[in-house]
Amino acid sequence: MISESLEKYISNIPKTELHLHIEGSFEPELMFEIARRNNINIRFKTVEELRKAYQFGNLQDFLDIYYDGANVLIHEQDFYDLTMAYFRKCKENNVVHTEIFADPQTHLSRGVKMETIINGITRAREDAERELGISSYLIICFLRHLDEDSAIETLEEALNYKNEIIGVGLDSSEVGNHPEKFKRVFARAKEEDFRLVAHAGEEGPSEYIWGALRELNVSRIDHGIRCMNDEGLIDYLAENQVPLTVCPLSNLKLQVVKNLSHHPLKEMLNNGLLAMINSDDPAYFGGYVNENFLQTAEALNLSEEDILQLAKNSFKASFLPE
Ligand code: HPA
Ligand code: ZN
Fold it and tell me: Ligand 1: does its nearest atom lie under 6 Å from the Cβ of 172?
């Protein structure tokens, strides 16, 4: 059992969140509410039935349900409500700054306009800053199961909202979609001074992390836990203090690790890696940032010093100015 004082320490310490998909913060209650007002049918009858379906054998199992859930988001107000609900969770978790991922292609392909997505999220970001004192950035991710031309088209459209977007990322089905596939679109994003991040080494091998670093020139790796099989890569990541946005409950729920006690996070810290704790898709994986901290601290016997290090790393790895 984790001590009450460590629990308090975890909930009180200020944190940033650097790996959060806004569509993955979509709680079933809000999903049903938005579906109702948009006259869209959900294939589950109740919130309970939907939650019961959240059993995943791997990343693809999750992605199928996650893209399905996003289908009810149509209007600017839907994106606003979704984002505002996440900011309220940030407040509860003492997340004082967050760098939110959104997947425009998931919505553009259904006829939702880029303007609708960006304006809804941006309005919530402004209100959260003013009303809750939480700062944030927006990162748009390209879906790696689609082709690079679609990503390029998405980037060109996103350039109309350059002031609202700090960077680009890469998510969705990893294995079989090597980072190299997106070399041109990341080069183009770099020319536009976007910050670059990519999911790599979640289900895919360490070679995908090398690919994201060398072919895409990313400055931060999302997940990255598979680096632990590659001594040369561990050395490189430690030496260059490349941030790794680790998501323990995600790794557990997607069966990337069998058990949280097998999670490599503690070993990553021991190797001097700039890792921190994030929630990824908290509505689907059973917890926001504090819950990720709590369960990981319990499973890996983390100390107050470890928690402090993880929180410090989250600030250091953020795109906030010094
Ligand atoms: N991995 C890849 N794609 C994703 C994830 C993830 O953890 N969450 C949402 N899209
Ligand atoms: Zn993710």
Answer: yes
Helices (H) and strands (E) in the chain, counts: 16, 8
Residues classed as catalytic: 202
User: Please, which residues have CB within 8 angstroms of residue 309's CB and are 6 or more apart in sequence?
Assistant: 269
Instruction: Judge contact between 38 and 76, C-beta under 8 A.
Output: no
Note the pLDDT tens digit of each residue in 133-157. Answer: 999 999 999 999 999 999 999 999 9
Give yes or no for residue 237 having a pLDDT over 90: yes
Angular region, 172: left φ>0, alpha ψ -120 to 50, beta rest: left
Is the CB of 306 within 6 Å of ligand 1?
A: no
As a whole number of angstroms, the distance between CA 121 and CA 107 comes to: 13
> Which option is the CATH number for 4-317: 3.40.50.720, 3.20.20.140, 3.40.50.170, 3.20.20.150?
3.20.20.140
What's CA 160's distance to the chain center, in Å?
23
Please report which ligand is nearest the Cα atom of 284.
1
